[in-house]
Amino acid sequence: xxxxxxxxxxxxxxxxxxxxxxxxxxxxxxxxxxxxxxxxxxxxxxxxxxxxxxxxxxxxxxxxxxxxxxxxxxxxxxxxxxxxxxxxxxxxxxxxxxxxxxxxxxxxxxxxxxxxxxxxxxxxxxxxxxxxxxxxxxxxxxxxxxxxxxxxxxxxxxxxxxxxxxxxxxxxxxxxxxxxxxxxxxxxxxxxxxxxxxxxxxxxxxxxxxxxxxxxxxxxxxxxxxxxxxxxxxxxxxxxxxxxxxxxxxxxxxxxxxxxxxxxxxxxxxxxxxxxxxxxxxxxxxxxxxxxxxxxxxxxxxxxxxxxxxxxxxxxxxxxxxxxxxxxxxxxxxxxxxxxxxxxxxxxxxxxxxxxxxxxxxxxxxxxxxxxxxxxxxxxxxxxxxxxxxxxxxxxxxxxxxxxxxxxxxxxxxxxxxxxxxxxxxxxxxxxxxxxxxxxxxxxxxxxxxxxxxxxxxxxxxxxxxxxxxxxxxxxxxxxxxxxxxxxxxxxxxxxxxxxxxxxxxxxxxxxxxxxxxxxxxxxxxxxxxxx
Length: 532
Ligand code: UN1
What we know:
By secondary structure, the chain is of the alpha/beta class. The chain has helices at residues 23-29, 73-90, 95-111, 113-124, 128-148, 187-198, 212-228, 243-251, 264-276, 299-311, 328-341, 363-378, 413-416, 433-441, 456-463; strands at residues 13-15, 39-40, 45-46, 53-57, 64-69, 156-158, 164-172, 175-179, 202-206, 236-239, 257-261, 280-284, 289-293, 321-327, 382-385, 404-407, 423-429, 445-446, 448-452, 472-475, 487-488, 491-492, 499-500, 509-517.
């Protein structure tokens, strides 16, 4: 293996000479010039002589953006060793000072919001507004983590023994492995990495093979902060790798926590491997999110939420609205309104102003979209509108689809599955809201849910413990677009993990209970006598 590059001027990419939509300029602004490496330890790049290259093409126009190198087992070992060394320094930095570093990272992200948002949009395919929103989500979590760095508190308790004191404290875990998905290629990393960092951990990030360039860009953005503060390499590392690297991380006892975002299939594998070594897994997996529309809904408001939830990010959010559970009294009205809105959706290049729906990530995703539509129709569903794979000018890639509306039944196998594409199932219910809640809960996933109703009895029934079984339950707000301040994640096959806000930080730390005797005797708990 060649010597790791001393300076972080080169990255894991081989940037192609083209300038579609000003992307060359964006790459230049982000410091991605030319390349040769498969991993970064924050300040240095390595894995420069790996043979295996991965071509990154944009789903927006099919153009090759760059080639990246894939990390090998040797690279992996190097990254883990460097991270272990960095941890010995980083954990000694007081938490509020670690927060100060995160504050600087947040400021750098503010400086780079435009080019990074644009690269997210171009590499992943979400519209620019959402690309910028994703970077804003990173900035928000930085701010949140800064405040948190002064609040990593435990409780104190009263001891049952005289002259004794009890309290608990939170210590860093060590190395945190982050496996992220293509759909939120940088925000989900930041939720994990920024909390992990203020908690005193170092992190190793395996971004999706579908979106590694934005990860390279993020490493560029934070390297100046690390350098200016004379921090060691290895606090934030990135490994450009395939599933093999993910498996290595899951099995590695040196990584006490693995945070993985992606499909339930992937999460079950990772969870099993991490569980077998009794490590901690933070899993944020598939959703099958529903909006309930009762006869008391503000339908105008609901339709707007449904559209953002169902076709935003081209249906590729974990929180995407996949099912609409509509009371029979309002069913026809809602159906007609959606039928009139769907064909008018502006679909096209996500960097072009005015478009609201970009492409799917790749042709596999398109195939799954089409197959799900075929299957649901075979089960008895009715395709009301959409479902076409678009072709012609602007759609040459074959990755743009017309979002689909399907009348279906909740029990159909296809409806029970999460298809990561813009398909919205319309499901009719009658009677009381409890019937709608039963349908909403009648799937294996449990991420996000919502009800549109101005009737307090209905909304409270939805929020009660007998109501929604999801990690997120909203009232008069759609299923997607959560703020970072709340804990994010879900139950059942969604994996049970909680990331981002609230007290999600606790999973990145180990809790220790301390009992201190400041008296002259040694009384035992539970009144046990053991005198010698
Ligand atoms: C995801 O899709 O994995 O709530 C994350 C939302 C975003 C995060 C989605 N804030 O839709």
